[in-house]
Amino acid sequence: MDEGALVLFSGGQDSTTCLAWALARFSRVETIGFDYGQRHRIELDCRARLREGISTLDPAWAARLGEDHMVSLDALGAISDTALTRETAIAFEADGLPNTFVPGRNIVFLTFAAALAYRRDLRRIVGGMCETDFSGYPDCRDDTIKALQVALNLGMDRRFVLDTPLMRIDKAATWALAKETGGQPLVDLIVEDTHTCYLGERGERHDWGYGCGTCPACDLRAKGYWAFAVNKP
What is the pLDDT of residues 94-144, one digit of tens each? Predict the structure, then answer.
């Protein structure tokens, strides 16, 4: 509890769940977001409202929630010809990966997060990477995160811990983790104020939140929500 943490906080369901997870465990929690020209940049507009909302759920969380940091990574978007950085249809490439994969994104995110954590004297770095329910992104795999932790610790002469609380669970279990961590109020906050849709759509409100309802991110979120809703206490 006496350790500080930096949470990769995009404004989506997974990162909001990770923020709550960190607030329940660490004495000081800061957040970092990245603007890389993502097609669904509207997620970044959700961050301030989510931080404010999550701080009202528990007085201890409000006391632990520290500064927010926004980093511009225009160069990443400039070299990424993907469906997340261009107005193009979402499809699968010849190698089997969806064209929503932004090469090196999580590696870059965690490297910049570690550089900030170094300066802010924060040992734990928390990310929502998951290799159970994902689109096959190689930089979401546990092996990638473990290897990067070693590289960052060697390169910065620190003992960072890269925490990935969602790594081994599916989307239904992610909803359940939110309920376990912050009760129904946290689930309601995630439904109303987080953003997941790859197309950046927030016009239509579904039981699981806002989105186009058809893109891979919406589909995964919706299926997880209904599986959680059937089994929740």
Answer: 555 554 556 678 888 999 999 999 999 999 999 999 987 656 678 878 999
Helices 171-193, 13-23: axis angle to 10 degrees equals 100
Of 156, 164, 159, 44, the closest CA to residue 111 belongs to: 156
Dig out the tokens for 144 from the structure. Answer: 């990638």
In whole angstroms, give the CA distance from residue 6 to residue 89: 34
- Taking residue 64's Cβ as centre, other Cβ atoms within 10 Å add up to 21
CA 195 to CA 149: how far, in whole Å? 28
CA–CA distance, 221 with 197 (Å, rounded to integer):
9
Contact 15, 50 (CB under 8 A): no
What is the chain's Cα-based Rg? 17
pTM: 0.90
* Domain parsing of the chain, residue ranges: 4-196
CATH class of 4-196: alpha beta
- Indicate left, alpha or beta for 211 from its phi (over 0: left) and psi (-120 to 50: alpha): left
